[in-house]
Amino acid sequence: MRPVWKGALTFGLVNVPIELVPAVRSSERISFRQLHKTDLSPIKYERVCQQDGKTVPWGDIVKGYEYEKGKFVVLDEDDFKAAAIESSKTIDVLDFVRSEEIDPRFFETPYYLLPSGKGAEKAYALLREAVRESGVIGVGTITMRSNSHHLCGVKVVGDALVLELMRFAGEVVPSDQFNFPAASLVRPQELQMARQLVENLSEPFTPEKYRDAYHDNLMEIIQAKMKGRKVKYVEPAEPSGTNVVDLMARLQESLAQGKRKRPGTRAAAPPSATRTKRAASARKRKSA
Fold this sequence. Notes:
Strand content: 25-35%
Structural class: alpha+beta
Mean pLDDT: 83
Distance between the termini: 58 Å
Largest sheet: 7 strands, mixed, barrel
CATH class of the domain at 5-27 and 84-171: Mainly Beta
């Protein structure tokens, strides 16, 4: 995988030459084109002026900030150049913070930091082991492009140093803007049973176990339609909520189901569109 950024990570007077490569990959998304229903021709989008309804060429388009409804401040290229931050080739670690002190909501996109160039391995390993043993995250800044200035955190994952782009404070919505249920609403016996249920369902995290059921179902439908088969939609049953009155009963029933479940078994995957259709047809034949 090609690096997206090259430079150096600095903390104090120590300089570590590094490269930045993505630590995650985008899942394969199913893309669609908008088509004209009658002849399936792709739809073309045009830049149309709201006032006269005419198409506007790119050369006549400017960027504006709407500070009041219908009132704009126009910014030109010189304005954007004046606001731009000089592209830097350094990740400046400003502070080291205990990892448990940083709210997970601040973290956004992870990248692997790789040692770059001769002699970088030792400095890289030294920083990694110091961060690991201290149990901290290095917090600093990185400018990846002239208009892309980020807060970032440097942490240890296995043998890797991982840089994670972070949100600034103004981007995180404070939880005190909302009213959440008080813990006093929960009775001790309910909490004990809920904890027991959580413990019964606890197991090591296995990411491969979880699948994007919507993606799989959609691809199954697309492949069926490519072969000329028509897929019938089956209306799902309305989910039943848990009322306060039957909360204990639901907890007891859940615990009983957990005991009956054989060790090592896993919950079934969500039914695909075809399996749902087959099940509905089977129920129809049975009722007939």
